[in-house]
């Protein structure tokens, strides 16, 4: 079994590793192996006077594929602004990543991470499983993950970061996105452990604002949360829902009175604009 896992991990590295075309001054990278989602690599590189961020992933999890029938590879590469880069590298230096050596731990339903830090000719590695956010190795991963949220733009990249959120134990899987239509995006899986944070988030939203609840990347929800949604929904005079297939089933089972449901965020947003 160990040999099979080693071969699998090497297949992931071979497909996701990106050869850099210029000499690297510094590099911070995490290769993530989540149990139930596509493997994803996050890399920050500094070359001469610029910093670049890359996200590389697959269209589906490589673990389930056969050699020769592998999922599509996806990459997003973006330039990091000077201010963002300075903050990132200062925080990374303060963490002293070359000294990180966590105790190895492995499990079944979580995420193992292979991390690399390079500075000049010096390179260090460590591996960890489901690191606590407050641990040194968790903070290393967190610095890269938070920078990713600042710079990525594509739908695939955003979905992958949302998938990683639950494995990194970062709390309620939700974001409030401001714009001409305010959006509450709920993603991943919601459990009873999220109830307090979910209710707090619901309470924080202005009841007079038109609101789009985006659940297009929601994979599951505990039924104990239905009461929170039933209390939240009538508070907003203008409310539209963009839902995945699973989310639609939950909304229908809740018994919300005449919910306005759409399959896409764009359609839900357009309906709200027309009814403001």
What labels describe this entry?
2 domains, 30% strand, 8 helices, six-stranded antiparallel sheet, 11 strands, Transcription Regulator spoIIAA, five-stranded mixed sheet, alpha/beta, Mago nashi protein, 276 residues
Report what the structure shows.
This protein has 276 residues and is of the alpha/beta class. The chain folds into 2 domains: 2-153, Mago nashi protein, CATH 3.30.1560; 174-275, Transcription Regulator spoIIAA, CATH 3.30.750.24. 35% of the residues lie in helices and 30% in strands. The chain has helices at 2-16, 82-95, 136-151, 155-167, 195-204, 226-232, 245-254, 265-275, and strands at residues 26-34, 40-47, 50-58, 73-80, 111-119, 122-129, 174-177, 182-190, 211-221, 239-243, 261-262. The strands form 2 sheets. The chain has a 6-stranded antiparallel beta sheet with strand order 4-3-2-1-5-6, with helices on both faces. The protein is globular, with a radius of gyration of 20 Å. The N and C termini lie far apart (58 Å). The model has no long low-confidence stretch (mean pLDDT 92).
């Amino acid at each position: 079994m160990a040999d099979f896992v080693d071969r699998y991990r090497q297949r992931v590295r071979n497909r996701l590793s990106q050869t850099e075309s210029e000499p690297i001054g510094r590099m911070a990278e995490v290769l993530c192996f989540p149990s139930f989602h596509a493997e994803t690599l996050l890399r920050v590189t500094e070359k001469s006077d610029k910093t670049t961020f890359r996200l590389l992933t697959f269209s589906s999890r490589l673990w389930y594929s056969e050699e020769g029938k592998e999922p599509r590879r996806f990459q997003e590469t973006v330039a990091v602004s000077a201010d963002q880069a300075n903050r990132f590298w200062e925080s990374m230096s303060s963490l002293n990543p070359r000294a990180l050596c966590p105790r190895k731990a492995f499990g079944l339903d979580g995420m193992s991470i292979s991390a690399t830090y390079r500075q000049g000719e010096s390179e260090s590695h460590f591996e960890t499983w489901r690191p606590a956010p407050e641990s040194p190795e968790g903070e290393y991963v967190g610095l890269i993950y938070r920078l990713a949220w600042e710079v990525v733009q594509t739908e695939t990249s955003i979905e992958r970061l949302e998938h990683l959120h639950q494995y990194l134990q970062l709390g309620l899987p939700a974001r409030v996105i401001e714009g001409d239509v305010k959006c509450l995006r709920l993603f991943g899986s919601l459990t009873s452990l999220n109830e307090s944070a979910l209710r707090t988030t619901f309470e924080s939203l202005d009841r007079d604002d038109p609101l789009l609840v985006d659940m297009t990347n929601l994979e599951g929800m505990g039924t104990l949360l239905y009461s929170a949604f039933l209390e939240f929904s009538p508070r907003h005079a203008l409310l539209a829902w963009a839902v995945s297939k699973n989310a639609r089933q939950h909304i229908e089972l809740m018994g919300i009175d005449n919910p306005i449901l759409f399959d896409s965020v764009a359609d839900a947003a357009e309906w709200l604009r027309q009814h403001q």
